[in-house]
Amino acid sequence: MNTDFERRSLWSATMPALPDRSGRALPDTADVVVVGGGYTGINAARELARRGVGVTLLEARTLGWGASTRNGGIVHPGYKLGPSQLVKRYGEETGHALYRETLAGYETVKRLVTEESIECDFRECGHLELAYSPSHVPGLEHQRESLASMGVTSTVVPRADLRAEIGSDAYYGGLAVSGSALIHPGRYFAGLAAAADRAGADIHEATRARTIRRQADGRFVVETERGAILAGDVFVGTNAYTDGVVPSLRRRIIPVSSYIIATEPLPEDLANEISPKGRSFFDTKNFLYYWHISTDRRMVFGGRASMLPTTIEHTAEILYRGLLEVHPQLAGRRVDYA
Q1: What 8-state DSSP symbol labels residue 22?
Q2: Which of 83, 153, 186, 211 could disulfide-pair with 11, CB 3.0 to 4.6 Å?
Q3: Is the pTM of this model over 0.70?
Q4: Residue 140 and residue 152: Cα distance in Å, rounded?
Q5: Which residues does 220 contact at the CB level (< 8 Å), separation at least 6?
Q6: Residue-wise DSSP of 317-335
């Protein structure tokens, strides 16, 4: 594998440049302070501002610095557990409610793309879940029945028919699932940030919230590196980058690292061979791979390549080996981003 790839995500490298929102004067007060400038925070700020709420967003680094511009570019409902497994673990009412919430989340992304006219290569093409071993094949039918209970359409694809779905002989069967999509995460994020601006949200970068404390009157003081803001409410959207600002939330979050490589653009015939229907792909092993062909015909291939403190160089090598196990026809193709 070549070693002269860029050490950043394909998405951040190919998204519109965002305005610099650092160094701006902080307000003394706000109706709501939003902590975190990723998908969650920026859309919360957008929605609040659209409702006439005075909202100030604080981002410790730059907008979208975390997983919002460093992810697989795949939009789909669901969890690691399917609907029937959720019901078994949490009961019918809660299990169904949990899954329905992810269906609503998927529809929210679709709605936002349309509502805000975001150009982000959104394409609703479904995904293919691939059986990593023969023992995983019966689970595909169980998963089909489980998804059907929630109104999600899927089709079991036997191994003999897999070549119509994917240019690989590494798997033993598949489940083709509708109601999922591919997206350029960086362009999507840039569209959300622009929408928050248009709505009137007050956005600040390079401003880390240090502490949040409630006053006797019920309001909150948000202490930052650059001063304090008095707020009626605080919305925390920090996800895997939650630090000590909200200890009770930090105790409930375990960050898990995942890594991605993106190749050089592939010839059109090779891209079509690998992904005849333009789907995204997952496999069923515990530390799964996920991948797809981007609109500019790059292979975007990801997985949990290392559980220990590691380097981009090391994880890229691991993923490249995995990529060639699945798609040996990509031997010799350059990696441009990791």
Answers
A1: B
A2: 186
A3: yes
A4: 14
A5: 33, 212, 213, 214, 230, 231, 232, 233, 234
A6: HHHHHHHHHH-GGGTTPPE
Question: What φ, ψ does residue 78 adopt, rounded to 5°?
Answer: 105, 175
Please tell me whether residue 195 adopts helix, strand or coil conformation: helix
**Mean pLDDT, each 10-residue run in order, the chain (338 residues):** 97 97 97 98 98 98 97 96 95 97 98 98 98 97 96 97 98 97 98 98 98 97 96 96 92 92 98 98 95 98 89 96 98 98
Give the three-class secondary structure for 263.
Answer: strand
Say which residues have a Cβ less than 8 Å from residue 305's Cβ, sequence separation at least 6: 258, 259, 314, 315, 316, 318, 319, 322
∠ Cα 27 38 34 (to 5°): 30
Give the separation between CA 162 and CA 178, rounded to whole angstroms: 16
Strand-pairing partners, residue 281, are 128, 291
